[in-house]
């Protein structure tokens, strides 16, 4: 019998009832976002393959996919998912919403296995799982976001020297990747395309946060549309999203979806957290436990990425030396079964 004055233990029902209605709305929106975005990778990939069969593939600079209805279905599906994700941030904190983005990787991988017949070695599956666990660990132990009362406050944070330096480094790295590395290594190294998408994405998320704050305050009666900073953030979001779309299409057309999705998620999440820490100075409110946990998350991500790279040429039941002679992922488009592995580097031995 509990002693007098002791409160009874809280049941799971009491804990659940304590969750606010806004958090529940955010949770549902985040889950819906993962479903739509995960499915969009597959639909867009099908559209890219169909467009590449009758025109110039996106991976080599073609834009015939713009005339393919299936690609637009995938694009609309992704837009719906992103809108749901954007709305989720308006109702629930990022610490609840962001980790659920990992579900899109699982959905994408399952659909790729069923629909696209893309296979991933068992250690590659483990690598994906480690990447997801590491990223989720970092996000779950990230510090709480600071309260923002105006879009001009976000602008002031973006104009501080630390974030300006980060933005300058990101933009410089993106230009180097686009003009130097992509012409030479774009068709053979997956990290080139995904690097552009992730770096640009870290800047777009900061602008999306600003727009979300502006929209929420505007709907609550404090009009933020009169501030020029709101429209500057809008232009940044549009520019970054268009860049991400272009190079993500190239990555999806050149490499298999089951590898593109987790690596893109890991890099995008890591860089976004870094940009948020620099911009909002969240490290000032972190405990040593949080810092150690985040470092463990990064180590987990590195382990998962290493496994993905090491197993890129492995096939179940065959050693790497034997499976290295397999055909490229595009060989099935010529009537050859090329579904025996998922490479991080596209092979040219089918020529």
Describe this structure in words.
Acts as a Mg(2+) transporter. Can also transport other divalent cations such as Fe(2+), Sr(2+), Ba(2+), Mn(2+) and Co(2+) but to a much less extent than Mg(2+). This protein is mainly alpha-helical. Among the domains are: about 20-120; about 325-350, no CATH class. The protein is built from 13 helices and no strands. The chain has helices spanning about 10-15, 20-55, 70-90, 95, 100-115, 120-140, 150-160, 160-185, 190-220, 230-255, 255-280, 290-310, 320-325. α2 runs antiparallel to α3, α2 runs parallel beside α5 and α6 (about 120-140) packs antiparallel against α12 (about 290-310). The N and C termini lie far apart (about 80 Å). Residues about 1-5, about 10-20 and about 315-350 have low confidence and may be disordered.
List SSEs in N-to-C order.
Answer: HHHHHHHHHHHHH
What proportion strand? under 5%
Rough outline: globular
Report on the biggest sheet.
none
**Count of individual beta strands:** 0
The chain-level structural class is mainly alpha
Mean pLDDT: 75
**Ends: how far apart?**
78 Å
Low-confidence segments, given as residue ranges, are 1-5, 10-18, 317-351
Q: Taking Cα atoms only, what radius of gyration do you get, to the nearest Å? A: 22 Å
Number of helices: 13
Q: Work out the helicity level.
A: 55-70%
GO molecular function: magnesium ion transmembrane transporter activity
InterPro entries: EmrE-like, Mg_trans_NIPA
Subunit structure: Homodimer.
Membrane topology: Multi-pass membrane protein
């Amino acid at each position: 019998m509990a002693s007098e004055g002791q409160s009874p233990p809280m049941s799971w029902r009491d804990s659940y009832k304590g969750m606010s209605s806004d958090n529940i709305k955010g949770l549902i929106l985040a889950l819906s976002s993962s479903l739509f975005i995960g499915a969009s990778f597959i639909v867009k990939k099908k559209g890219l393959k169909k467009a590449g069969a009758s025109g110039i593939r996106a991976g080599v600079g073609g834009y015939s996919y713009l005339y393919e209805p299936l690609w637009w279905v995938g694009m609309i599906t992704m837009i719906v998912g992103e809108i749901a994700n954007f709305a989720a941030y308006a109702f629930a904190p990022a610490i609840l919403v962001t980790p659920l983005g990992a579900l899109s990787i699982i959905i994408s991988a399952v659909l790729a296995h069923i629909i696209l017949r893309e296979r991933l070695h068992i250690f590659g599956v483990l690598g994906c799982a480690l990447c997801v666990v590491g990223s989720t660990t970092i996000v779950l132990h990230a510090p709480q976001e600071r309260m923002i009362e105006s879009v001009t406050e976000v602008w002031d944070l973006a104009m501080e020297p630390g974030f300006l330096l980060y933005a300058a480094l990101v933009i410089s790295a993106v230009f180097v990747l686009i003009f130097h590395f992509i012409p030479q290594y774009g068709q053979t190294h997956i990290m080139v395309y995904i690097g552009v998408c992730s770096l640009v994405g870290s800047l777009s998320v900061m602008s999306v946060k600003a727009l979300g704050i502006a929209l929420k305050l505007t709907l609550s009666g404090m009009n933020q549309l009169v501030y020029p900073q709101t429209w500057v953030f809008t232009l940044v979001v549009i520019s970054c999203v268009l860049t991400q779309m272009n190079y993500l299409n190239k990555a999806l057309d050149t490499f298999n979806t089951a590898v593109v999705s987790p690596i893109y998620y890991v890099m995008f999440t890591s860089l976004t957290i870094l940009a948020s820490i620099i911009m909002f100075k969240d490290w000032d409110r972190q405990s040593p436990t949080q810092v150690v946990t985040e470092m463990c998350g990064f180590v987990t991500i590195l382990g998962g990425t290493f496994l993905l790279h090491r197993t890129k040429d492995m096939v179940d039941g065959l050693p790497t030396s034997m499976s290295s002679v397999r055909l490229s992922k595009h060989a099935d488009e010529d009537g050859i079964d090329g579904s025996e592995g998922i490479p991080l580097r596209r092979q040219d031995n089918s020529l």
